[in-house]
Design a protein that fits this description.
With 211 residues, this protein is mostly beta strands. The chain is 9% helix and 40% strand. It contains two helices and 14 strands; from the N terminus they run αβββββαβββββββββ.
Length: 211
C-alpha cells in the first residue's frame, strides 16, 4: 500500500490538476456550526484535541500540550475528484506548545519549541464500486510562498490509504506553517485517483481555502 500511495502522490506532483476557489464566508457565530461530523472521531495521540476551539484566542491544554486558536474557517467545502467526494469540514490555524514528551516526535519537522500549524478536518467518500487509492492533500501552498508536501502531516491518521468501495473515512490533517507573514489562505492540491492496478482514473484538483 505504501508503494501505491507513493505512486499516487508522486504522479500528482509531476502532472497538472484543475483549479477551484472557495470563498471563506465564515459564519459570524460558532454556535451556528453543526458539529455532528465529529461524532465518532477519537482524539489524536500527538496533538491536543481542538474540537472545542471555536473562538479566536481560545486555548486548550491537555497532556499533549497547549493549543491556541489563531484563525478559523468553519464553512463546509466540497470538491469531486472522479468518484471521490472530498469535504473539508473545518480549517484552523493553531499555535501549539507541545508537551516535552513529544519533543522527539516533532523534532523531525521543526526545531522550534512552539509553532503554528494549519489543521483541516476532512471526510472522504468513495462513491464507486471499486477500491481506489487517493490522498486528500498531496501539496499545500500558502500566500506566504511556503510549499508543504503530504509527508509532513503531523496527525498521521491514515487518510492517505486505500479507500474501499462505497466507503468513507474522516479525520484531521495538519501541517506546520511559517506565519512570520500574515497567513491569508492555503491552496490544496489533492492527489490523482488510482484504481487497484495503479491506473489513473481521475486527475488531481486544486482548491483554495481563505481565512
Amino acid at each position: 500500500m505504501k508503494k501505491s500511495i507513493g505512486f499516487v502522490l508522486l504522479s500528482t506532483l509531476l502532472f497538472g490538476c484543475s483549479d477551484k476557489d472557495f470563498s471563506a464566508n465564515t459564519p459570524a457565530l460558532a454556535q451556528e456550526i453543526e458539529s455532528n461530523y465529529l461524532d465518532g472521531y477519537g482524539a489524536n495521540p500527538q496533538v491536543p484535541d481542538d474540537r472545542t476551539l471555536l473562538t479566536v484566542g481560545q486555548s486548550i491544554k491537555d497532556a499533549k500540550g497547549e493549543a491556541t486558536l489563531q484563525k478559523i474557517n468553519l464553512k463546509e467545502q466540497s470538491i469531486d475528484i472522479g468518484d471521490i467526494k472530498l469535504t473539508v469540514k473545518d480549517t484552523k490555524l493553531i499555535h501549539l506548545f507541545p508537551d516535552y514528551s513529544l519533543t522527539d516526535y516533532f523534532h523531525s519537522l521543526t526545531h522550534e519549541e512552539e509553532f503554528d500549524f494549519v489543521k483541516l478536518f476532512v471526510e472522504i467518500k468513495n462513491n464507486s464500486n471499486k477500491k481506489v487509492n487517493f490522498a486528500p492533500i498531496a501539496l499545500i501552498e500558502t500566500n506566504t510562498g511556503q510549499k508543504i508536501t503530504w509527508d509532513q502531516d503531523i496527525y498521521l491518521e491514515n487518510l492517505n490509504k486505500e479507500i474501499d468501495r462505497n466507503a468513507s473515512k474522516k479525520g484531521n490533517l495538519g501541517f506546520i506553517v511559517d506565519t512570520k507573514a500574515n497567513l491569508e489562505w492555503i491552496e490544496v492540491t489533492t492527489s490523482d485517483v488510482f484504481d487497484e492496478n495503479e491506473t489513473k482514473v481521475a486527475d488531481a484538483k486544486k482548491f483554495r481555502i481563505k481565512f
